Amino acid sequence: MKAWLREHVLALRDSLVRMGRTPLASLLSILVVALALLLPAMLHVALKNLAALAPDRGTDPQLTLYLRPDAADAERLGVEAALRRQTAIARFRFVPKDAALAELEKATGLESVVTELGRNPLPDAFVVTAAPGNARILESLQSEAGKWPGVEYAQLDSLWARQVDAALRAGRLLVLLLAAVLGIALAAVTFNTIRLQILNRREEIEVSKLIGATNAFIRRPFLYFGALQALLGAWLAWALIEGALRLIEAQMGQAAVALVSPGAALLGPGLPEILLATPVAGALGWSGAWLSVAFHLRQFDPK
Amino acid sequence: MIRLSDVSKKYPGGQEALRRISLDVDKGEFVLLLGHSGAGKSTLLKIMAAIERPSAGTVSVSGQDLRELRPAAIPYLRRNFGLVFQDHKLLMDRSVRDNVALPLRITGFEGRDIARRVRAALDRVGLLGRETAHPVELSGGEQQRVCIARAIVHRPAIVLADEPTANLDDDYAREIVKLFTSLHQVGVTLVVSTHAPQVFDGVPTRRVTLTQGSLQS
């Protein structure tokens, strides 16, 4: 175990040394990897910011049941019980009018207008969410729930909201497709970088094989190199995105940013995304390197 | 220790390098393979080290039939050998120390052991103090000695040397012969090819002559 670990540490060190020996070439390769990752990552960030404009809506189809201002508690409980019996919906939640008002003030910055009104004009409401792709259930529920005691009005997502949802969903699908395609590109970039490295180290590989090196011994530093390059590329892409967002914020000005982003800052890749992207990028680099070594080592038959 | 039975080697172009060679090399033996250039000496050494496969016949090393050896097991077999190449096969962008340490790194030795063994091997070939030099800074004889140090650093049971004294002047050649003799004295099995046997005169060896791929007894 100790020897196995030592060999891996040595292979990792060897990869770092090789990167350090050719800093410009290494940097360019890392940059290519970063650019390959940048496109889907930027699109993902754009969608994330777009989705954040309607933070409570989420992206699933929703039906809102507005209760009459004078609805009794018994009627509210009746609506809640009726919703519990609806097995086809994904979930529902009660939004008291005070919470709705606070949300409205926070989202729109209309505190002064609301204060001038002197009373809360919003009703209590239930927000019902259907499972993705199951919006038809809400359409039938809309007509049914509109007749329930205590319900004044049942409003299905307006057309534009549904269009935004559809666009967000299509955008997310596009991100996934782009990520898959550019993931392959990342592996291809690594494949080619490793191919060049193998050609540069041909003599060393041949001599090593002659004196007893296994394919695993020869392969290991290249695998680490591929994984490291992809990891560094992923982190560079992340840094570039953060830099781009800060640049956009600076250009837009704080007030404009606050209009499009509730947190007064554009959203970048979060920790969960980075924690997911890092091993995925590393694995893609490792795979590209593995394919390259497996393919090219076959051509090395030392004599 | 090494047994060849009816070994022939024919290259794809039709050239027959070896014809029905049968040869036994016992443990601790010092065998000199003699013959002119192109006689098949290098091919025979490569077949012993599983670098080339024979077209016919069987080769066994320490009782292991090489035909039955899986490709993945060949590197482990080669670790039993110390190989000295006619063209040295040194890594020119690496120091003498790194070149000599390569077999130890391959077999997974620890850093301290590597340093100790490399020093011992370089001391044995008279190159202690040249650890940081690169092969291009060394003479042909010194490069050959680095190659020998690399071959013996992991203390192999068998040393196969292909023309180790070629292109060397007499003094360097005698130094290398002396080195092989000292290895033989500590029980290492040696198979050394040469087309200039006179430098081995006075050394107790078994001489085997190859002529156009055939063994002359």
Label this structure with key terms.
heterodimer, A: 303 residues, alpha+beta, Alpha-Beta Plaits, 4-stranded antiparallel β-sheet, 11 helices, 4 strands, 71% helix, 7% strand, B: 217 residues, alpha/beta, 6-stranded mixed β-sheet, 6 helices, 10 strands
Description:
- The complex is a heterodimer of chains A (303) and B (217).
- Chain A is of the alpha+beta class.
- Chain A has helices at 2-21, 23-51, 73-84, 97-108, 111-117, 135-145, 159-200, 202-210, 215-252, 254-260, 271-297; strands at residues 62-67, 91-95, 125-129, 151-156.
- Chain A has a four-stranded antiparallel sheet.
- In chain A, helix 2 (23-51) runs antiparallel to helix 7 (159-200) and helix 7 packs parallel to helix 11.
- The mean pLDDT of chain A is 83.
- Chain B is α/β, with parallel strands linked by helices and 217 residues long.
- Helices cover 31% and strands 26% of the residues of chain B.
- Chain B has six helices and ten strands, in the order βββαββαβαααβαβββ.
- Chain B has a six-stranded mixed sheet, with helices on both faces.
- The radius of gyration of chain B is 17 Å and the shape is globular.
- Chain B starts with a strand and ends with a strand.
- The model of chain B has no long low-confidence stretch (mean pLDDT 90).
Short note summarizing the structure:
The complex is a heterodimer of chains A (303) and B (217). Chain A has 303 residues and is α+β, with helices and mostly antiparallel strands.
Encode the helix/strand succession of chain A as letters. Answer: HHEHEHHEHEHHHHH
> What is the beta-strand fraction of chain B?
25-35%
Helix vs. strand class of chain B: alpha/beta
Strand order of the largest sheet of chain A: 2-3-1-4
What's the layout of helices and strands?
The complex is a heterodimer of chains A (303) and B (217).
Chain A: H1 2-21, H2 23-51, E1 62-67, H3 73-84, E2 91-95, H4 97-108, H5 111-117, E3 125-129, H6 135-145, E4 151-156, H7 159-200, H8 202-210, H9 215-252, H10 254-260, H11 271-297
Antiparallel strand pairs in A: 1-3, 1-4, 2-3
Helix pairs in contact in A: 1-9, 2-7, 2-9, 7-9, 7-11, 9-11
Chain B: E1 2-10, E2 16-25, E3 30-34, H1 41-48, E4 56-61, E5 64-65, H2 74-78, E6 81-84, H3 96-106, H4 111-124, H5 140-152, E7 158-162, H6 170-185, E8 189-194, E9 206-211, E10 214-216
Parallel strand pairs in B: 3-8, 3-9, 6-7, 7-8
Antiparallel strand pairs in B: 1-2, 1-4, 4-5, 9-10
Helix pairs in contact in B: 3-4, 3-5, 4-5
